Amino acid sequence: MRQDDSFTTLFNTLRGKAHELSGELLRPWLHSSVFHTQSTHISDYIDEAENNLKILSNIQSRSEPEFEVQAAYLSERVTQQLEALTRALYRTKPPISESASEIRQAYSAKTQTKVTSTNPETLKKLYSTLTQYKGYEQRLEDQLRLAQQSNDKNQQELVLKAQQRLLRCQRAIVDIEKKIYWCEKALTPDID
What we know:
192 residues; mainly alpha; 2 domains; 71% helix; elongated
């Protein structure tokens, strides 16, 4: 299957899912940092992503070096748009507009801290962080599912990257759960 055919299949799948959730949205659903479109119709967002992919394809067919930066930008944008559409359509709620770098920073900053305080406020923050990480886990599972369904020539690489991200997220969740356990144990008097 050619790459164009796989993208056609992908967009047809997205349109089918959008049709299942038919009806006008109450407000624009996807963040303006990812889409120029601000519409209450999900199909408008799919059209924008598909149009950007066509432009990218035209740019990549040129061998002139001045188009490399534009191609790299559009490639990243199309990737972000497809991820956002997949999250939105398969979660049936608006996605949180956080970039991958923000998520990475949150993981590294929060998972490497030890529980130094065992007050109820610390426990509340840990539960809040756990909820946030569970949301990340769901989105990463969606990305993995999309990568597995892709018929792209780089499918193995996409699947591997998605699996690695998901594994790091799951490790962070385990770390937070351990912190919650020790914090609760410190707050709860021993009953023998």
